[in-house]
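Homework-ish question, so no full write-ups if that breaks the rules, but can someone show me the predicted structure for this set?
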Amino acid sequence: MFSGLSNLAHAYYAVFSFPSVVFGLGGALCGIFVGCLPGLSATLCIALLTTLTVRMPANDAILVLVCSYVGTLYGGSRSAILLNIPGTAANAASCADGHALALRGEAGRAIGLATSGAFSGVLFGVICLALLTPVLARVALSFGSYEFFWLALFGVTMSGRLVGNDPIKGWLMGMLGLFVAQIGQDGLYAHDRFTFGIDELAGGIAIIPALVGAFGFSEILTTLANPVGQIVDLKDSVLPRFREVIHYWQTSLRSGALGVLTGLLPGVGEDAGAWISYAAARMFSKEKDQFGHGSIDALMAAETGDMSSIPGHMIPMLSLGVPGSAPSAVLMAAIIIHGIQPGPMLAIDHPLFILDVVAMTSLAMCSILVFGLFLVRPLLHVLRVPRAVLMPIIFLLCNIGAFATASRLFDIYAMAVIGVIAFFLRRRGYQMAPFVLGLVLGPLLDKSLRRGLVLSDGSLLPFFTRPISIMLFCAITLTIVLQMESVRSALAGLFRGRKASAQP
Amino acid sequence: MTGQVEPRETAPGAGTPPAPADHTDRWEGLAWVIFGALILGMSLAMDRLAEQGVPIYAAPGVLPGLLGLVMILFGSSVALRRAPIPVSAEEAAQRRYRLQAGRLAAVLGLCLTYSFVLVGRGLFYWVFGFSLPFWLASAIFVTTAILVLQHPQRQEAGRKLDARAIGFALLMGISAGVIATLVFERFFLVHLP
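A: Not a homework solution, just the prediction itself:
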């Protein structure tokens, strides 16, 4: 136990020393800038910064990425409060109450409370990250190909179910992501799949160009197609009153726990953490009627929930190698690029890395508090930068981002083609998060399925008889079956029948 | 006092009520079925590596084939469902952007020209026999994009394209191209196309 604490202290000392603090603050600031701009997501920010930091030492690069991840989701609350537009999808729950407060002339108060909510959320999440990741990693050591197959499928299924309002379209996007991941040489026998004789396709569609296309180029096109809105000006102080923050301790604790729990589920996404916390806060609140009309309780719950889900998503990413959300999927890809393989073997191959990530997330948490409270007005200027100037420059960065990791012109073409397809799919209600999860989990799913079948000599039984496998299989089946129209109408009929028979 | 910015999306459930569902889902579903069938067909036709002693259940086409099958099932479900899922306010708003199709086509054209023609050994190289330096290609793209994207705002304000607007766009374009090239090549040691 003491060696563990000593290692943790060492990790904090390394991260909070001179050059690392500068990298961390830079990453968080960059993330807050991107988060402030509606249309630019955490996924894009991490993908672009991955290419920018590819030549840096692994720990410095991952520190920048972790801080930008936390910064982006925090920055999204600015535009939610001041513009009524969530900077990222995870901040959508903060819109109604945050903007209502801003319209009442309490924008500063809303920003201050959102900042304290975000800080407490990440703090709660960091504690869970430090405590739960090693435990889950130990459990995951007993996982075999069968469990990993179902776990990967569970991530894609949950993501498809919870993102957007049409689960079937979400699942189709997940399947598309899984399929795109199969292009190129397969992981077991190096056999070319769907390459059509094109040499560049033999290496597969690289994940960073694909993500930059799906989240960068398509977002640029979406942003430029939108009309003009209004920003509310800041008149009051952003420094929250200590008594006010303490008053909502129950909300912070509950939302922190819910955020981490939703983060633990693969594929669920940060926005689910925010919405579930929001719903729970409403259930327990004494001011239910205020929800949606400027409730502090609601704003605190939403911000705490979405921010605590960030460390929550890192737990399955680090211990199982299964990311919880699209941004954590990119973060995982970046960690792999830097030579560290997340998953059950992480605790054995890189025993101190989990503690490093805990320290990095703590630095990110401190950064958002500093920038959130003391750099408010300069950050507001970011919201006023004309899109006509900003978007071409971001597209230029997207091209560099796609090219930089492998120095292949083909990656720029892949980014552009995927971006155009993603743009039109998004307009038709197809979400990108399941696609990203599919893209990242595709190789794991393929290897696990075929390895499992080889181990069982072609028998499917072990996929359905091992305890964790059967649990995951049941969860996936229930998720899909409950979406079927006939099943839902049958269930509704059953409940109506019971209600009618219960009435005298 | 308020400042103008251009938002991207509305909060789910906020603003306008959901628009009525349309029936284009049927064609989409059909497209997914065809795509899934293509994947399934190609997976079945894929080499099963039997001569290397690979059992059929470990053949490279197993998972892609299953994915194709699932796409056919879900695609059919989208095509055949009786009541399409009502679109959200955000999605409905996105579908209304047909009015801005010209602007969208211009942006798309500019971006694709930059990626496929100007950068590295793109179409420009194959036509003219030499490739543009990255900073110049980027400067041309950013300058043109700013001028094109600001055109509707100028029109709305009744202003014509003047030397000041061109100068600003040129300054931004050259700065972006030169700074990006210097920062990435010299500081981050990234080789640019």
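Now go work out the reasoning yourself. Hint: Chain B has seven helices and one strand.
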